[in-house]
Every structure is written in C-alpha cells, then in structure tokens.
Amino acid sequence: MLDTTRTLAPSTRPLPTARVPLAAETVLVAAFSTYLTLLTWAIVWKLRLPHVGESLSPVKWVPFAATAVFGPSAPAEVAANFLVFVPLGLLLGVLWPRRAWWSGTLLIAAISTTYEVLQFVLAVGAADITDVIANTTGGAVGLALVACAQTRSRFGAREVLQRAGGFALLVALIVSALAVVSLTP
C-alpha cells in the first residue's frame, strides 16, 4: 500500500489525534450530559419544577430591539445567554474534534432553536431570536477556544477540559441536588 502522507504538503497533512482513554471520555460524556440536562432545566423551566403552561407564549422575532409586546433585550440577559452556551462549544469541540467549525456552530444553533421552540410549545416562556443569536455566538466562542487550546497548548484541550469537566460535573451535581431539595415542599 502506498503511503501518501509523505507526498502531501505540510499544510495539507492531517493532524495527528491521540485517542482519549475510556475513563477520560466517560467523564467528558457525563459532563456533557449533565450540562445539557441542567441547561434544559434552566432555559425551559427557569430552574423551577417542570410544568406546562396554559396557552402558547409569544415569540420575539426582532432581535435586540423593543417591539409592541416586548421591551429591548436586557444586556445582562444577552450576556448570560452568551456565557451559558460557551461550555456547550467547549464540550462539543473536545468530544468531536474533527467536526468542522461551521457544523459545530450549526449544531449549537439547532440546540438553541430547539430550546426556544420548547419554550413556545410548552408555554413556559417567550421564544426570542435574540437568545438564539447570543447562544449560538457563545457556543461558537467555545468552539474557537478549543481550537486555540489545541494549537497552542502542549497539554491539549482534551486533557485540560477532562479535568475541568470532572470538577464541573461534581459542582453541577451538588448544585442540582441543593436546588431539588429547595424545591421540595
């Protein structure tokens, strides 16, 4: 069999990727699953007991600006929407490193849009295009941070995020347990 990697120009050679040990992969998948569960609880039910509303809620189609029904987007809320999706980009970038940046960004946009549609259908909050824009931007920044870490870090983004993911998973589980305990009558 002919080895074609030697004939490729340096810029077109595929980057070597080390296989992550199963335990590290398990921690990252657990952190990702826990993050998505908490994100769903925070976005759809605003950290309250899950419920379904009475009627369909409104949709804000004009980003950032005030409309007849909605006021302008609060900068703190836009910033929170941005920040809460950065970990999604980080985790996606680490779990699926060979994914193109644009496909990762499209996946993040689809996840954000799904949350907004759920809020609309379940009548638990207003669906807002500003949220989709801020969430997608935050996730794209997370993807970019992983790409930078992979090219600039001698340790690699996976190793750093695996340790951070394990710690974040522990903190998330503790916070979730405390929140559930505080919600019970």
Describe the structure.
Helix content is 63%, strand content 2%. It starts with 21 loop residues before the first helix and ends with a helix. The protein has helices spanning 22-45, 75-95, 101-121, 129-152, 157-183; strands at residues 59-60, 127-128. It has a two-stranded parallel ribbon with strand order 1-2. α1 runs antiparallel to α2 and α3 packs antiparallel against α4 (129-152). Mean pLDDT is 76; it is low at 13-18. It has a domain at 85-177. It is built from five helices and two strands; from the N terminus they run αβααβαα. With 185 residues, the protein is mostly helical.
Task: Give the SSE layout.
Layout: H1 22-45, E1 59-60, H2 75-95, H3 101-121, E2 127-128, H4 129-152, H5 157-183
Parallel strand pairs: 1-2
Helix pairs in contact: 1-2, 1-3, 1-5, 2-4, 2-5, 3-4
